[in-house]
Amino acid sequence: MIGITEPRRVAATSLANRVADERNCILGTEVGYSIRFDNCTDETTKIKYMTEGILLRELMSDPLLTSYSVIVVDEVHERTLLTDIIMGLLKKIIRKRKRLRIVVCSATVDAEQLRDFFNTNTTKDSTKDTAIILTVEGRLYPVDIFYVKEPVANYVTSVVDTALKIHETEESGDILAFLTGLDEVDQAVSLLSEHAKLIKEGKQKLLPLAMYGSLPNSEQLKVFWRAAKDTRKVIVATNIAETSITIPNIVYVIDCGFVKIPWYEVETQTNSLVIVPVSKASADQRAGRAGRVRTGKAYRLYTEQAYSELFESTPPEMQRSDLAPAILQLKALGIDNVLRFNFPSAPPSKNLLTGLELLYALGAIDSNGELTAPLGLTMAEMPLEPVLAKSLIVSGEMECSEELSIILAMLQVQNVFIRPAGGQAAIKARIAHRKFEVEEGDLLSFLNVYTAYEKNKTPSWCQKHFLNHKALRRATEIKAQMHCMMRRLDIPLISCNGNVHKY
After folding, report:
1. pLDDT of 389-414, one tens digit each?
2. Helix, coil or strand: residue 231
């Protein structure tokens, strides 16, 4: 097989769709995809698109990837935690399997550094190099870049204003606007929808669409559809549209200049998403999206001076994230000395130490740093963070696994509560949310929200209580998939029947 890894689910599914179309086959046969909790392949699959986590899971059962002849690692410049781990593992595999071909694809990456990483030739003779650089010229039309004279006060409203100005003054062509997260995207789309309703008959219509990773698949596909002749699409996206997907007919790009990245604080052992200025590489990548079909324009909502002060590239996720899940995966793959593992960019030793301490405290590894059986092995099998995996295993013994699976499913989705920005709506939302809140904390509040949603399940009920219907629907899917996993791992499914104070 040819295995192709993508950092995002949307990219894996949309690319598999496209390639299946081009090869005139049904998706899931010759060309298929595999993402967390959704496998669309069969025994005849020859080209398999997948997320990086899936390839890591496959390495557990087949450490030398014997079912693959070629592995393509795509979007390497994003330098996610899993990309770096996979590259480190592939370097080990090619020592044993000389015939395995590895293709590392990237838009803006430092190619020399990666060539040196994979090159096993220690002699001065360059003809014996085991890694080479191939360059493919991207066909880009020229893109005019515009900066603001003064920094903007609120980039969400500025994105909306800029989109409306483009719609009024520029010729036809779709608009792609970049914001940092789901909240901002939804806010911008609802503002644009209100303006779209006010456009007079006979004028070109406006169709605002959202695009982010946690959007249901059917909604994600809408951005790829052609709009009617008299309609201009405005796609408001997170940095998912920066490289992972290419939306046809984009001529104008609006760049807010910020991005949300995961950040791990070693002292407090907390993960958070922080909003930071984009790097120059990302800004150029965003602008380049406007030049795919014809000459385009990119509007940057920051000054030219601000652009010159940006970092060249975003620091690799390996250097700013919680390494406990990564260490657990590596241990499960039989790599005992994680400290000596050859990462493309070395993580801080402080982060490695904290990760090992956490796994020891959870009982996943023993005092020699070896994976424990069955606890550590079962935790490694689960596509959950180590703390959550341990709690799910223990919930079976404590007879509350049904409730805990709901809470964990709710933690996997973002923004269950809708919090309007201000005015009467904000007060009403606060009162509505109070119905679910309990003094024991947020986790049981989530449980109450889900239990109430199970009984009603209508979008109108969610609207009335200021709850995100899409997020709750996704939580239902994740809960069902979690139950399948629990049955596979022999974790009993028991409900405590509302007795939350048992322990």
Report:
1. 999 999 988 889 999 999 999 998 87
2. strand
In this structure, what DSSP letter does residue 44 have? T
Largest CA distance in the chain: 74
Q: Return the bridge partners of 205, or none.
A: 231
Helices (H) and strands (E) in the chain, counts: 19, 14
**What's the rounded Cα separation, in Å, for the pair 23 and 409?**
37
H helices present in 122-262, as ranges = 155-169, 182-197, 217-221, 240-243
Q: Write the pLDDT tens digit of every residue in 436-483.
A: 998 888 999 999 999 999 998 888 999 999 998 988 998 998 899 899
- Upstream peptide bond of 348 is cis (omega within 30 degrees of 0): no
Q: How many CB atoms lie within 10 A of CB 484?
A: 10
SS3 call for 374: coil
Find the Cα–Cα–Cα–Cα dihedral 29, 31, 34, 40, rounded to 10°.
Answer: -30
Q: Report the candidate in 134, 113, 112, 130 with the shortest Cα–Cα distance to residue 121.
A: 130
What contacts 230, CB < 8 A, 6 or more positions away?
204, 205
Does an H or E element contain 279, and which? none
Q: List Cα–Cα distances, 493 to 26, 137, 479, in angstroms.
A: 36, 54, 12
Tokens found for residue 190: 């609802």
Cβ atoms of 147 and 303 closer than 8 Å: yes
Q: d(Cα 241, Cα 238) in Å, to the nearest integer? A: 7
pTM confidence score: 0.76
